[in-house]
Please model this.
Amino acid sequence: MELATIRDVAKRAGVAVSTVSRVINQSGYVGGETQRKVLSAMRELNFQPNRIARGLVSRQTSTIGLLIPDVANPFFSELSRGVEDAAIARGYSVLLCNSDWNPNRENMYINLLNGRWVDGIIVVGSRSDISVVQQVAAETPLVMVDRRSSDFEFAVWTDNRQGAMLAVRHLLEVGCERIVHIAGPMDSPSAQERRRGYEVAIQEAGMEPMFLEGDFRYASGFELVNALFQRGDVVDGIFAGNDLMAIGALQAAANLGIRVPDNLAVVGYDNIPSTHYVSPPLTTIDQPAYDMGYSAFELLYDRLSKDSPTENQQMKFEPKLVLRESTRR
Ligand code: RIB
Model:
């Protein structure tokens, strides 16, 4: 079926194309009766105004760009759903871009979105130099999620250091004496903060920190833990920097015949839905992904819809420990 054009609408309503354009863009005077005729012709023909074309006139597209680091990670899917639900509720659409944890691709997308017709941008889990974010934000309203920087004020995040401390203190409470941290990649600000939280809690307990760097994906958790035990290292607690790596770690332990939680207690981070369904179910640190996404759009919307800058420029969420069988001794 062919899409109706603005000409088709004008013909059906018996008015000029310029009149239809004025109705779509809500610009200039159009009498009440004419407006009704145009709107009903649009409905009858299921006419979808081209947002780019509208943007040329109004300089607004009611579209935002959302850039996430890993489309395959359920934490980011849930967060994206929050952004999208909030956007739709306000009459906006969302263009989704995925950087695959690649800073060059992230920079490419941020600049691309800035040059296109989006009204605002939400960047999640950014690793780019903060100056790139600042530069783009000077031209297009931008909100960062899952990253906090004293050099950029519009942000939604959880306290990663606090979350890591909760995880390590819990492992200590259940009797762990040698706790390794399988961290996320060290160019990720949230991974750096979690590592700091781990170190603080381990040092408080008078223990030596032990750290391995993964990449926030299943395979790195699996491979690092496999290699750790193959080397004969003695470890009775794992704090993984996210759930995907923790699930990889659980699988490596199962293959090696290590009993979780009796001989090895494991804590993840994020509280993605599959943590309920792995064996044993995974204790983790909850981050409210959906709410973070929803709030990020609301923060952006506040900036898009008001002339004066918003007072509420930052939103911090608290991480929570969620207890399950992987640490229940
Ligand atoms: O699972 C991906 C992790 O990377 C999340 O914990 C999120 O906070 C991000 O930085």
